[in-house]
Every structure is written in structure tokens, then in C-alpha cells.
Design the sequence.
């Protein structure tokens, strides 16, 4: 189950979509010269994912404040607060899962770096129970993760670079998915850029930037010229969240706009030169100007994001009877186990897929915890979907003595024994065990025999049968050899 965000169209008019769940796990780097459409691209991504995931925007130019009107983002004017208040605000952002825009406009570059470092560090240091998925967008990332200190102090650079490195390198485990945009790759610290797995490369002209962009896209150096020829709003996309091969995408339209629009040509005044001269050189009259109005009082940090922040209320789901819930669980488990390669996927990943599918079928809460899911998954892999059948209670009690990964092949043997079916082949046992190795299957059977859980027998015709002594059940004889080669995928 995936969520796709429409980013635009490729050269043939086909939609190019961004997989939001994959993006949260793999991060994104956007590069392009000024005027190439980076902010437009970020706005398209933010608008498409608004309401689906929490968003935090580090905005050095105040371009994204307009999101607050259309999508309910809280705009934080950083110039009105101290560093300590900024840290408290960031902690509340994590606690209440509010989408915010940190507007750094009006601050000097060093103050912007210190403020961003304070805010990002507070997001990163949130308690474990607040590690919710969050899209953290940093525009003009070369300001906050520069290669060299430049005009700012080394202390400010180290603090900002450290916070950006934590975001891109270690943020994923804390639910923080970095999306960074930069005008020049050559000015962006390599250890920050290297952590992104998805790339959207826009127009650039300098050879060093084209070469780095081509390397990240997996293109040959001689192919880098295509980056110079990109039109405004066109990007080359690559990464697991968007495309496995470089694809040219034209970013689609957006609903909001920046407060500072791009300059447009306007007609010059039509006054005669003499008239303009008289206007410019007229005597300046001394007059008393009224005192400027006092600046508005800043909103206290305690009130900007407090406990009263409205949290979107999810629509209530219908209450299902126990048998209806069990039917949904059985159907979902059956779908998961029948998908090709599911036996070789890690159980936590399958559990996330299971929870999402149950939610889509109107189950209000997860019907199983992870431990319960492991047990039901093992039963489903053995073809046992009805957990309420008391006849399996004794078999499950014996299976509880085994390691978790052995439960599925054991139950496959038990089911065959109970129903008088032929002994499962090595291939079937290997798939239930999540391996491609016949040797591991033989070691598995040998280990269970040593524990006196099963007893295997091979007759003169070479056919194997397996008994479960404690239950008094025995499978019918069958050849243990694998007639087809085991699948060449999985953990081996």
C-alpha cells in the first residue's frame, strides 16, 4: 500500500509520481540554479503531501509562508524569538505534530544558521514516543551545510552543519525525512548530500556542478551537457521514490505562490526628460514626519504552539463485530502470504503492510500486535487461517518451544500430518522458513528431531514421512527432493 504524489509529467505526457512512504525512508536532494524552479518543485511536493504527513519547512527567504493560508501551516517568525524559545517551539512541534514554516527572513546569515541549528537539533532530540514521520524541507541548504565557513564564524558553521548532518544521516530512525534544495552542489557539504537517495536535478551551468549532478544521476560525464539545456521547471529525476532510471519531468502547477514573485517587465514612464529632471531635482521640503507606529508585540512562544493546537480529527470508523474483524484479518493474511517473495521479506515490513491494509478495510485499530502477527503469519504460511480452531491448540503449544522462524515450517508439517497429506517437499519447507538453501532445511529437520519434537523416516523407496509423537499424527510418505530449483531471491 503506497501513497503517490503527482509531481508532473515526463516527455511523453505520462505522470511522474513520488512515493511518499519511500521518500520518508530515503530522503531527497533538489539542485538547480536560481530561477530553475526549485521552490516551485518544493511547493508542489508540500502541497501534494499536505494532510498526509507532518511538514516542517526551514525557509530562509519567506517563500513558503503562504502555505499557512491554504493548508493551515503555522508560520513562525524566527526574528521575534530567542534561541531558547525557538528550541521550545521545536519541541512542541514534535509533540503536537503541527506542520510549520520557520521563516528566517530578516535575519543575518549567521543568525539564520544558528536559528536553524537550534530548531533542527530540538526536533532531533525529541523523546522516542514523539518520533512521528515528518517531512523536513530545507531550502537553500548550502547556507546551512556549507563546504567552508565563508563570512560566518566557525562556531555557527559547525552547529548548523552538525544539525544538517544529523537530519540527513540519523534522522530517518527518528522519523525525520530530509528534503534539501541547493543552488550549487559544489557549495553543499558532501556528507550531507551523499545521504540522499532521490535526486531532482535542474538547470545548472558550471562544469563542477554538472559533473557532480551527472555522478549522482549515474550518467557519464559526456552526458552532463543535458543538464545545462534543461528548461525552467524541468528536472531530471532518479531514486527509489520516483524512478529507477533518470527521467525528465516537468513539474506541475501549484495552488499557492511565494510572496516575492519573479520580476516582470513593466513599461517605463512616458514623461519627458525635462519633466523627470524637475521631479528629481526639486528642492526638498523640510517637514516633520509622523513617528512610525510601534511594531506589533511578538506572540509569546508559549502561545504560538500550545496545547490548544487543533489536531485534525480522523473520521470515525464503523465498529465491526468480532467475526467481521477476524474475516478481514484472515483475508489480509492470505493476500500477504500469496504475494510472490513475501516469505523472504522481514516480518516488521510485512506487519506495517498488514496494518495499512486492515486500516483500508475499515478496521479502526490494529487487530494484532507484532508478536501476535508473527504467530498468525506463521500459521497462514502453513495454510492455517482459522485461529479459532481448537484442534490446533496442542500443535501451537508445541510450536511455542521452537524459535519464531521455525514455527511456519513446523506447522506446515503438522497440517500435512493432521490431514494425512504427503510430507511437504524441501522447497515448500524452505519457502516457509524464508530460505533458498536445501541444506538449511535438512538442518532444520535434524534439529527438531534432536529436540524430540518430530520423528522422520525414509522408506526403501526413498520417500520421507514425518511424525509428531506428542500428537500421534504422521504425514503420508513423499519424496523429499526438490523437483525444481529453489527461488533465486530472498535471504538464502
Sequence:
Amino acid at each position: 500500500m503506497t501513497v503517490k504524489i503527482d509531481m508532473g509529467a515526463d516527455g511523453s505526457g505520462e505522470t511522474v509520481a513520488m512515493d511518499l512512504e519511500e521518500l520518508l525512508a530515503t530522503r531527497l536532494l533538489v539542485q538547480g540554479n536560481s530561477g530553475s524552479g526549485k521552490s516551485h518543485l518544493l511547493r508542489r511536493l508540500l502541497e501534494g503531501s499536505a494532510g498526509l504527513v507532518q511538514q516542517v519547512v526551514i525557509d530562509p527567504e519567506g517563500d513558503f509562508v503562504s502555505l499557512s493560508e491554504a493548508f493551515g501551516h503555522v508560520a513562525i517568525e524566527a526574528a521575534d524569538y530567542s534561541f531558547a524559545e525557538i528550541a521550545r517551539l521545536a519541541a512542541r512541534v514534535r509533540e503536537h505534530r503541527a506542520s510549520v514554516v520557520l521563516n528566517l527572513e530578516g535575519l543575518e546569515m549567521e543568525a539564520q544558521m544558528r536559528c536553524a541549528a537550534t530548531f533542527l537539533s530540538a526536533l532531533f532530540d525529541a523523546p522516542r514516543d514523539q518520533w512521528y514521520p515528518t517531512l523536513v524541507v530545507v531550502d537553500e541548504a548550502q547556507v546551512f551545510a556549507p563546504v567552508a565557513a565563508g563570512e560566518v564564524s566557525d562556531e555557527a558553521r559547525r552547529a548548523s552543519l552538525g544539525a544538517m548532518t544529523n537530519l540527513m544521516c540519523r534522522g530517518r530512525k527518528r522519523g525525520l525525512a530530509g528534503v534539501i534544495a541547493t543552488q550549487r552542489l559544489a557549495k553543499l557539504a558532501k556528507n550531507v548530500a551523499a545521504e540522499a537517495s532521490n535526486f531532482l536535478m535542474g538547470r545548472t551551468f558550471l562544469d563542477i556542478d554538472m559533473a557532480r549532478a551527472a555522478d549522482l544521476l549515474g550518467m557519464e560525464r559526456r552526458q552532463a551537457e543535458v543538464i545545462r539545456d534543461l528548461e525552467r521547471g524541468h528536472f531530471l529525476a532518479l531514486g527509489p521514490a520516483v524512478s529507477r532510471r533518470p527521467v525528465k519531468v516537468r513539474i506541475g502547477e501549484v495552488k499557492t505562490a511565494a510572496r516575492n514573485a519573479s520580476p516582470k517587465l513593466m513599461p517605463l514612464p512616458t514623461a519627458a526628460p525635462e519633466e523627470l529632471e524637475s521631479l528629481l531635482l526639486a528642492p526638498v521640503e523640510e517637514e516633520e514626519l509622523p513617528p512610525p507606529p510601534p511594531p506589533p508585540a511578538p506572540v509569546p512562544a508559549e502561545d504560538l504552539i500550545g496545547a490548544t493546537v487543533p489536531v485534525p480529527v480522523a473520521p470515525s470508523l464503523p465498529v465491526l463485530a468480532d467475526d467481521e474483524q477476524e474475516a478481514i484479518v484472515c483475508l489480509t493474511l492470505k493476500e500477504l502470504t500469496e504475494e510472490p517473495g513475501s516469505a523472504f521479506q522481514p516480518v516488521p515490513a510485512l506487519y506495517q503492510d498488514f496494518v495499512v491494509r486492515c486500516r483500508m478495510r475499515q478496521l479502526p485499530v490494529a487487530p494484532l500486535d507484532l508478536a501476535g502477527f508473527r504467530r498468525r503469519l506463521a500459521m497462514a504460511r502453513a495454510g492455517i487461517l482459522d485461529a479459532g480452531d481448537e484442534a490446533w491448540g496442542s500443535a501451537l503449544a508445541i510450536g511455542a518451544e521452537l524459535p519464531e522462524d521455525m514455527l511456519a515450517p513446523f506447522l506446515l508439517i503438522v497440517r500435512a500430518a493432521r490431514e494425512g497429506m504427503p510430507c511437504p517437499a524441501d522447497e515448500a519447507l524452505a519457502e516457509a522458513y524464508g530460505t533458498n538453501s536445501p541444506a538449511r532445511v535438512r538442518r532444520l529437520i535434524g534439529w527438531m528431531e534432536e529436540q524430540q519434537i518430530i520423528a522422520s523416516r525414509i522408506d526403501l523407496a526413498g520417500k520421507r514421512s514425518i511424525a509428531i509423537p506428542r500428537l500421534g499424527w504422521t504425514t503420508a510418505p513423499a519424496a523429499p527432493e526438490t523437483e525444481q530449483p529453489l527461488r533465486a531471491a530472498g535471504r538464502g
